[in-house]
Predict the structure of Triacylglycerol lipase.
Amino acid sequence: MAPSAVDPAPQTESAPNGIHPSFLDRLDNDFIEYYNEHFASKPATHTIPVSEIRTGWQHKYRSPWCRDYSGEPLVKDLKIQSDDGHIFTARCYYPDPEKWGPGPYPVYINFHGGGFTFGDLTGDAELCDQYRTRVGVLAIDVDYRLCPEFRFGKGHEDAWAALRWVHNHGKELNAIPESISIGGISAGGHISAVLQQQARDSGLSLKLAVLAVPAVTSHAAYLKASDAPWPSCSENEFAPCLNWARILYFRGYSRPDGLKGEVAHIVRQPLDGNLHGVCPTIVLTAACDPIRDEGEAYAQKLIKEGVLTTVRRYSGVPHPFMHMSPIKKAQIYVEDVCAALKAAHGL
C-alpha cells in the first residue's frame, strides 16, 4: 500500500511530544498530519502518573477517537459477574433491525487496548459501531479491570467471564451463541490470544479471533529495547504512540513478571501457549510498532500448528493507527476486519 498523497506536515522541534526525526520518512503523510494535530503539542501520557491520568481523563487526556454511545436506542449496557464476584459492564451495540433483520445476531466480543492500564468503553466505540453497522454483528465491548488498581490477570478473568456469559446467555441478548468471535487491539489482542486458548481447552467454539497489533509477551526480561529478541523493538524504539519508554511505563504498573505464582504462564506470555486447535485467527500488525515482530511470530506459530490464519502488516503507520479514522490505513484496517468478520460468520 502506497502512502497517501498529501503534503508532509511540518515538524515542530519545540513540540513536547513531536515525532522523532528518524520516523518522518517512514510514516504516511496523513498519519503525520493527524499526529501533529492531536498529539505533538501534548505531553505523552506515559510521562504522567496513572493517578493523574485517572483524575484528568475525561477533559485532559482522553484520546480524540473516544466516543460515548451510551443511552442510544440500539446500545445497551449489561452487568456480568466475574468468578471472584467482581461485577463489570459490557456494552452491547446492536445492528439496525431495518437493515439486518430482527435477529438473532452473530456476536463479536471486543477487548480494548491500553497496556492493561488505560482504556474504557469509549476507546473502541467507533470501531464497535462500524462492525455492527457494516457487518451486522452484535458487538459487545467489555470494560475489564485495569492495573494498578487491580493486579494483572484480573482483566483476563473478566474477559473470560464475559465470553462464557455470552455463550451461555446468548439467547437473552438476541444473539447466536454458536456464532461468536473475539478480538482486540494491543492489550486487547493479548487478552484475545489467551481467550482463544482457554476456549479451545473448554470446548467453547469460536468463529474467529481478531488480534490487532497484539502484545503476546510480557517484555519482563528486557531492560532495553536492544535486549528484546524482536528486531522491531530496537527498530521502533522511538516510534510515535507506542515506543520502548511507553512499554516500560505499562510494565511498571502491570508487573506481570512479579506474578509467576499467581497468574498462569499463558496469561503473561500467550506466545508460549499451545496453539494447536485454536480458532481461525487474523493477525494485523503495524510496520512502525515495537511489538510488530512478536505479533507476527504468534501468527507464524499459528500457521505451523495448522490454524487457519491471515496475517497483514500495514506500512507507514505505528501501533494504534486503526483508531485514527481520517487516515487511509485506518480505513483499510476497518475494511479488512469487516471482511474477516463477514466471512467467519457467514454473512
